[in-house]
């Protein structure tokens, strides 16, 4: 009966309406019981006469009836209107306190408690959305910091190598003036690149926000600069480096700093897995530039062919100081930013092969 009343009546009423309804029902029930008690008292009076204990007994029975009615009404009101929503709110609060927002709360009632639980669910949903947004922002920043540290390594290594070369051979005058100027020019390019990269990375929230600044650059000058970096990287890993090129345009329109970042990450990845040699081939056509870096190592596994471009994928390599699994991911994102793509494959004679392509419209 209680469930039926709850389903048909009280769930449709507000707390005030439910309370008033219970008061009326309780009052009617108490009056009925009191009427029966008066009838009972009258029977006792007729049976035992004007006894002194009949009236006090009647008063006590009436008071107990009123008290029982009030207590019963309070219990019913709590069970029908407050108990379930309070339990839901308590459970939800405990989950939120435990940083668990992956739940939903609902209460099928049109009263104030139903509205309160609906508002609580809306708060939980908004809080979950905000936490996820904040978490994604933190993860993007962590990834961006890791990428920043990762990409600083190669230009710093080039600067360090050139500095050591100058410090070792310049005092002994074993370097020609032309070679010294060439080293200084290379170092200056990398310093400008570091400044530009640091400025860009300080203002972006994720890697995809890195801007592309195209400029017309001589094909030979660009590939010479890339080959200098490749020689430094190959030397670090104790590998040899061979390059080849075919082109039909002397001037291309690219962002040289992004091209260098992509190339250096590809070169480092190839040198890391090569047995002894890394090969680089430049293919520069009217509207595209392709750079293929291949090695004579074991090549990519089936898993790596599908996952190598994912951030922090390392395969079977574990070197927390040198290899963070970010290189090819950076290449993929920057190629797409530069209207190109990244292809990963195994060479026909073994070894891995990575090809980066860029859109290179020529200024008219």
Structure notes:
By secondary structure, the chain is α+β, with helices and mostly antiparallel strands. It is built from nine helices and seven strands, in the order H-H-H-H-H-E-H-E-E-H-E-E-H-H-E-E. The strands form two sheets. A five-stranded mixed β-sheet has the order 2-4-5-7-6. A hairpin with a 5-residue loop joins strand 6 and strand 7. The longest helix is centred in the middle third of the chain and has 58 residues. The protein starts with a helix and ends in a 5-residue tail after the last strand. About 2% of the residues have low confidence.
Summarize this structure as a short list of keywords or feature phrases.
two-stranded antiparallel sheet; alpha+beta; 364 residues; rod-shaped; 61% helix; 5-stranded mixed sheet; 9 helices
Short description:
The chain is α+β, with helices and mostly antiparallel strands and 364 residues long. It is 61% helix and 12% strand. It has helices spanning 2-8, 15-48, 54-97, 112-169, 177-203, 219-236, 256-273, 302-307, 327-337; strands spanning 215-218, 240-247, 251-254, 277-284, 288-295, 342-346, 352-359.
Q: What is the mean predicted local confidence, pLDDT? A: 81
The H/E string reads: HHHHHEHEEHEEHHEE
Q: Which structural class best describes the helix and strand composition?
A: alpha+beta
Helix content: 55-70%
Strand content: 5-15%
Number of helices: 9
What Rg, in angstroms, do the CA atoms define? 40 Å
Question: Could you give a short account of the major beta sheet?
Answer: 5 strands, mixed
Q: What is the oligomeric state here?
A: single chain
Shape: rod-shaped
Order the strands across the largest sheet as they lie in space: 2-4-5-7-6
Q: Report, as a whole number of angstroms, the end-to-end distance.
A: 88 Å
The parts where pLDDT drops under 50 for at least 5 residues are: 316-324
Number of strands: 7
